[in-house]
Amino acid sequence: MSSSSISDRILNFAIQYSTYTGCIIISFGVIAGLLPIVIASVFSMLAYHNVRHIVRRQLPIVRRKLDKQITAMVLMRVIAFVCLLLPYITYRIYVINFPTSRSVPMAYAISRLLQAILLSINNINFIINFYLFIIFSSRFRRQMKFVLVKKYWQRWKYWCCSMNNRIEPDNNIEGRNSQMESDENI
């Protein structure tokens, strides 16, 4: 093999690798990162704009209050979504462009630790809805209290703590009579 064919192969590989990483940056950065953030932000701003104009419509006050409450919930959800997703997406794009080598163990370990921390923060995104809704919605709190306390707690209490402290009559008269007769024979 000549040195020109090896350098041509290396050059060809470098071109394919840069094309591949460019596709990863586009797919990961845009489709998994930027696009969901933009869509969520746009629709939350549209919801906020809708609630700002709801005062002009002839709707009952309770309905307006509930619309404002749901819009506040959506806005807080989008803010949490952006704050929890953006650091990991930024880190992944950085790592794709500037990968750390395993030959430098300390830098590689720091990179993996940072990835684990940011991935954990990103995963909080999936569990935070419940807590945000509890904080920002009195109606959600009331409904949750009704479901947990009134329905499930009562069922659990009945199932778990149903003690038979009652004295019930024994309806088996024949069994008692035959037992008494056998006691007398002894």
From TrEMBL:
Cell compartment(s), UniProt: Membrane
Record keywords, A-Z: Membrane, Transmembrane, Transmembrane helix
Top-rank lineage group of the source organism: Eukaryota
Cellular component annotations (GO), alphabetically ordered: membrane
Residues spanning the membrane: 24-49, 70-94, 114-136
Domain G-protein coupled receptors family 1 profile, residue spans: 1-133
Protein's UniProt name: G-protein coupled receptors family 1 profile domain-containing protein
